[in-house]
Structures are given as structure tokens and as C-alpha cells.
Please model this.
Amino acid sequence: MDPYRRLVRPALFRLDPERTHEAAIALAERVGRRLPRAQIDPALEVTAMGLRFPSPIGLAAGFDKGARAVDAWAAVGFGFAEVGTVTPEPQAGNPRPRMFRLGSDHALINRLGFNNPGSVVVASRLAAARARGRVAIPIGVNVGKSRDTLAERAVHDYAAAVERLWPYADYVVVNVSSPNTPGLRDLQARSALGEILTAVLDVDVRSAEWSGEPRRPVLVKLAPDLSDEQVDAVTELALELELAGVVVSNTTLSRAGLRSPAAMTSEEGGLSGAPLRLRSTELVGRVARRAEGALAVVGVGGVSSARDAWDKLAAGASLVQLYTALVYEGPSLVRRINRELARMMRERGIERVADIRSAG
Ligand SMILES: Cc1cc2nc3c(=O)[nH]c(=O)nc-3n(C[C@H](O)[C@H](O)[C@H](O)COP(=O)(O)O)c2cc1C
Model:
């Protein structure tokens, strides 16, 4: 067994999950500026949404909400990282405890509620990181609305956050799928979502004009609890608006099939990790089939091995992200997945990650 699982994990798992996470981010922030970027097999390079990714494996949103450790993620072996969710103004999130480990299920439940330092602070951290010249991978910025913003004003929150963060983002994700901000998921309905995405695209076009820089890929992140019809409707909307892609999926409200004690599984919040894996892969396939290559699909949910990543890529994802498996397997997991994915490709005579889909 590797040292993380044998020695580090048992010690960390005696501590409160959120405190452990804070310590991990503080460590990543401190050492991240000194570590060299990980060596990644050139066969893993992916071009998607007009960007070049050294590996299709990325850090999912929510791990580095405040963009504190952006220098570290290339050193860990990630091919890209998504910071946020960022709201226009800082907010504290829900009362603690609000993050729970479901060890027997290799899962987490969280109801953090978009705790983040706000768009001004995140913009300045990203600006500083870029000025240090150590951001070696694409950085996505995931935006959301503040808890206290009324649904009818939500569009302003998304536009304001994107306006502030646009200069420092390689791509932008509109998050309408967290279960921990009341009413947020209702914004996935076609009319509300259409309005938000149109406003964000407008900011994108204007920012590109003013700065003379290229437009940024804009994506929308979906909940796994949508019905098939709702998923199809959002995919159609994304196609009509010519979005760059869709992130599938956020955490689930479902508690089906869990082994952990009821006292744990009954905690309110979004469930992530292994129990989400198949549902999210199924959704990746659904969106990818309908999009027929016109949208990049970012597959996320329960990925903890190269095989899991492979399944998402085979279902039609261009890129993959993970969060919960880092908690259970430690940071060396990312380099292991990179190595193993390259080996699986070589074994099957596949030269490009994009060809995994047709190889199955
Ligand atoms: C503690 C925690 C916080 C999260 N915060 C966010 C967030 O702020 N924004 C977001 O879009 N997704 C957030 N997520 C969802 C992840 O980005 C991802 O979609 C989900 O966890 C499924 O991936 P996983 O099974 O690899 O963890 C969070 C997940 C966890 C576990």
C-alpha cells in the first residue's frame, strides 16, 4: 500500500474534514511555488476549446475555491485546474460542520455553500500567480451567485463575477448546479439559464473587444439529478448559444446505494465520490451523443483511477476532473493516473486521448 494510505490518511482522517482540507491548501500554497511541474507523457496532451492541456486530468472546482494554490496544481500532475466557485462578493458559507467523510463509500457530503473570498480577491491572486510566470496549465474560473441575491437578480451576479475574473481565466464555468445555495439549481431551467448564459457571453465578447485578447471558452456545469429531458434541453441551449462546453456533473442529492451509517448519509448536502461515478459517466455519454462534437464535455464524478478516467473519455468526455479521490488517495494519485492512462493507450495502440472514444 502506498505511504499516503498507510500512514498519512489514518492520521488525517482523525481530524475534521474541512480543517484537513484547509491544511492541505495551506501546504499546497506554500510548497507549490517551489516545486517543479510534473513530467507528463506527451501522449496525454489534449487540445480542446482552443486550449492546450498537458493532460486531460484536471482539478475539479471547489478544492481551490479562492485560487490560493494555483502554482501547485501543475506540480501535482494536473493538466488543468478550475478555481471557485467564486461569487461577486466574499461570503462565509453555511455554519460548520459542513463537510463529512463517508469512508465506506469513498464519498463526501458537503454543504459548504460557496464560502469564498469574492471576485476581487480571487482576481488579484490570479493576477499575482500569472505575474510570477508559474501558471503552466489552463486555469478555469467557476462562477456562482451569492446566497442573498434574489433569483431575478442572479444574472447580474454571474455577469459581475465574470467581468472581474475574465482577464485571468483561460475558461469560464457558469455554475448553476450546486445544491447548497437555495434555488440555485432552478436556474438550470431553460429561460433562466438562457438569460444568464447570454449575459455571460456578452461580457465575454465585450471583454475580448476591449482587451484585444481572444474570447474565453464558456461552459455550464450541470447537476446529475436532472431528468434526461432537462439534460437534453440544456444541451440544446448550449448548442444554440454556441457555448464551448458542458461540465458533467456537480454533486448529487441522491443517497441511493450507500453503505455508510444513516447518521452520516442523512447529512444534508451534495454527495460526491464513488457513488456518483456511473451516473455522471452516463450523463457524459448523453450530452456527448447529442452534441456530436460541437461541445467539449468535461466529465467529473467519482474518478479515482485511470480506468475511471478512461470510462469518461470513452463515453465522450474531452477532459476529466476529480476532487473526492484526492482526499482518499492523496496527491500522488494524479501522477499515477497520468502514467497508467498513457500505458493503457500504448497497450491498445491509441496515439491520442481523443481517440479513446472510438476505441471504447
Ligand atoms: C467539498 C466539495 C466542495 C465543492 N465545491 C464546489 C464548488 O464550489 N463549485 C462547483 O462547481 N463544484 C464544487 N464541488 C463539486 C466538484 O467540483 C465535483 O463536481 C464533484 O465533487 C464530483 O467530483 P468527485 O466525485 O471527483 O468529487 C465540490 C465538491 C466537494 C467534494
